Amino acid sequence: MGFFKNQFSNVVEWEEFRDDMIFWKWSNREIKKGSKLIIRSGQDAIFLNNGKVEGIFEDEGSFNIDSEIIPFLSTLKGFKFGFNSGMRVEVLFVNTKEFTVRWGTQSPVLIPTPQLPGGMPIRANGTFNFKVSDYVTLIDKIAGIKQSYLVEDVKIRITSVLDQLLMKWISREGKDMFNLQANASDIAKGIQEDLDMQMMDIGIGITGFQVMSFNYPQEIQDMITKTASHEMIGNLQKYQQVSMTDGISSGKVKGGGAASDMAGMMMGMNMANEMMKNMNQNQNNNANPSQNQNSDQKPTAIQNSDAGASSSSGDNKKPNFCPNCGAKNEGANFCPNCGQKLG
Q: What is the pLDDT of residues 58-106, one digit of tens each?
């Protein structure tokens, strides 16, 4: 008897589990007396009979079906296992985790803009998050006709409407068509709300939507970059100077060409102007101390002029101070400061 009991018993579990699988259906087999139900972490098990939900089990572990599961099923509580007969039901295993999916526009989305009559061609990329939110709706719309459902199936469904939603929300929130990244958060929020409303019809909730970047055609991107550079530097003249300096330092402007000659001439003129400015500044600094010294010492020269003159008339001695500028004399015939003859 024990031999036959083990022969007909089986295990109900998610046999083909994959991380990218949203649900998998255990079906077309009978559940025998003594069978076990195994629910792993991140899974829910839903018992179905003729497409109707009999019970939902969320706790992970191993359970005896006839003693721990059947008593909780809605319409099968009175079902009694026979020796050679089982209970033919379906068990839907659902992945309960939140999925994160990368998305990107397959072709440029033409956004209406006054600057370009044909529309601004824009590509975008980012991520979105979703999880199963309504088991009954999921079974009614998807699981009733499918054996399994993958993340890729949801991605295809979402990307099929994403271009229209990008056009809608970029046109609404993208006040500056050349700086869409500034409004990326508001654009993403609007798209998430619309996607959530659409995916609700199949029992899936959109828990997040992010726009990582907007990409323009190369010629438009170059124009945006150049305009931003002009604004950062302040004016065109400075931009040209910085461009010339960058060209010289990077080696792109080399000898033999008109650009190199012009660069050399400009650098020479700048160096000459800088040298002249420094020379003028040094001369001004040297002139100021002499003027200050003369103004301070002239009164002393006036006070001592008589003494110096009388001394020189008597014994032909040199005056101690110059009668012209008042500078101290150490016996020289001429003033070391102004050149006045002292002898």
A: 999 999 988 888 888 877 665 665 545 667 788 999 999 999 999 999 8
d(CA 124, CA 120): 13
Alpha carbons 343 and 334: distance in angstroms, whole number: 7
| Separation CA 169–CA 183 (nearest Å) | 10
CATH fold of 99-220, please? Answer: Tetrahydropterin Synthase; Chain A (3.30.479)
Tens-place pLDDT, residues 23-35: 999 987 788 878 8
Distance of CA 231 to the CA centre of its chain: 21
CB 97 within 8 A of CB 151: no
Separation CA 204–CA 132 (nearest Å)? 5
pLDDT, one tens digit per residue, over 229-251 is 555 555 555 555 555 555 555 55
User: Where does 151-302 show beta strands of DSSP type E?
Assistant: 204-215
294's tokens: 């003369």
- Running along the chain, 343 residues long, what does each successive block of 10 average in pLDDT? 47 91 88 89 92 90 89 71 66 96 91 78 95 95 92 95 93 77 93 96 97 83 59 54 55 51 57 66 63 49 43 58 76 76 73
Q: Quick one: which H or E segment has residue 94?
A: strand 90-95
Determine how many CB atoms are found less than 10 A away from the CB of residue 14: 21
From residue 10, alpha-carbon distances to 33, 62, 87 in Å are: 8, 13, 12
DSSP letter for 49, please: E
Helix (H) / strand (E) containing 148: strand 148-150
DSSP structure class, residue 129:
E
Q: Identify the CA nearest to 33 among candidates 61, 5, 55, 68.
A: 5
What pTM value is reported for the model?
0.61
- Integer CA distances (angstroms), 134 to 95, 106, 145, 232, in order: 12, 30, 17, 52
